Amino acid sequence: MRKLWQKWSLFHPIFFSLFPVFQYYASNSSEALLKNIISPLIYSLGLMIIVWTILRFLFRDSYRSAFITSILLLWFFSYQHLTGQVESYTLLKYGFILIVVLFVAFKVRNYQKTAGFLTILGGYIFISSLLRIIPIELQRARNTINLESLRSDEVEKELQNASIAGTKPDIYYIVPDRYANNTTLKEFYNFDNSDFTDFLQSKGFYIAEHSTTNYPKTFLSLASSLNLQHITELSSLIGRDVSDNTPVFTMVQNNMLSEFLQKQGYAFVYIGSWWEPTRINRHADVNINLYANSDEFLRKFGQTTALNPILNEIFHKGDILGFSDNRVRENHQYQFEKLKKIAQYKSPKFVFVHMLIPHSPYVLDRSCNPVDDKEDGKDITTYREQLICVNNQFKEVIASILKNSQNPPIIVFQADEGPFKVDEMNRHGEGINWQKTSDEAARVHMRIFNAYHLPGFDKSQLYSSITPVNSFRLILNHYFKTRFETLPDKNYYIPHLNNPYDFYEVTDIVDFK
């Protein structure tokens, strides 16, 4: 029994390498999936094995090498917790903490006695993190089952009976994140957007001047528009007090629109952002993303460790573990260049594009030259400057698509949400009770830019206040002979980002009167 305990007492480096990953996941499970922990677990265990192996070779003492390994792991994974903020300490200051920690570690006289205590401590915090995760995963499994009942029978029936005569047009669904409505741009940003709207109208676009988003966050808005239905039932299916966003991420991934079009012979071309839920789509035939292989969970976990200040000293701040202004700018430019050539892909194709622009950070001036977002997304002037760049780039994109398409394409250019009124709601509405903000803030955020290029479509069927939930209902009715009814163009708000399914209606507030 004693020998068995001696072996178990050396398990503490394993526990201290596993615990940080599980703890970080438990704290961020509202936007992550269990599979996201695989890569950081591999790296964490690999780091532990390398360090422990080297120390055993140097000291020829299993207990001493295990003790120092655990101390080093605690130091390495405690960076954010010790400093309070990821960027608050310099590498020099944090290195001094390491020297103190190692000094204390080498002063320990009986490593064998401390091994048992460390193993019990490590086992306790590891099991504690597991106990936090288990109910989360059980609830998530129930939510996944519940979501199946949300798939609209009406949508399924109409899509099954759909048909198309003649040539299948390419379909582009371009979502420029937080592109404000023209009224918002004029009233709050002192910007006249007529140059861009005139360009679109000259190319045959219909501008829905009074359009609003149905839901106030990207994942909710896209789950609704891509599935051609309202999603207010999520309040009862998932729960008003649940903060977990991931069930609805699956609605964006497994959406009914792309599934239907693929069955109709369309190639699904997916141009995603660096934001994890729209980074790639595993159902797409083609994924186009400069950072398709970038793991957001791994990057953000790495930012909590001592690796973050080390890499920031060597490279440009945020270039490796974060998304620095350089990387954000690089991804925007990559997306625009790919879009200018996208019409050359084999037809018919459904191209979904989510671009986190004019969304902050504001890293491009009106001429698309690099600038630093010194105000961290809170300067309305830099939003306006970046928007001018966006407009000019999209002019080239749309002109290229129209010129190089074999047949006139369908193009939906539609924001998922508007910008936030930063003096009331910060950059992203974080940490704010939305119910205590003004009606004006709701109008700024919920009013969106929305434009349609629909060749051969009777534009009298369109209307200025159309919302995203009805976009593809009307489009499929015309091009695929479906018979969808037009749903109420209602708008729903949430009280807090921690309550994404606690919907309440704000149609009367955000509607154009």
TrEMBL record:
Keywords: Membrane, Transmembrane, Transmembrane helix. It holds the Pfam family Sulfatase. Residues 241-449 form the Sulfatase N-terminal domain. The keyword Transmembrane applies. The chain crosses the membrane at residues 7-25, 37-55, 62-79, 91-108, 115-134. InterPro entries: Alkaline_phosphatase_core_sf, Sulfatase_N. The keyword Kinase does not apply. This is Sulfatase N-terminal domain-containing protein. It comes from Candidatus Roizmanbacteria bacterium RIFCSPHIGHO2_02_FULL_37_24. The lineage of its organism: Bacteria, Candidatus Roizmaniibacteriota.
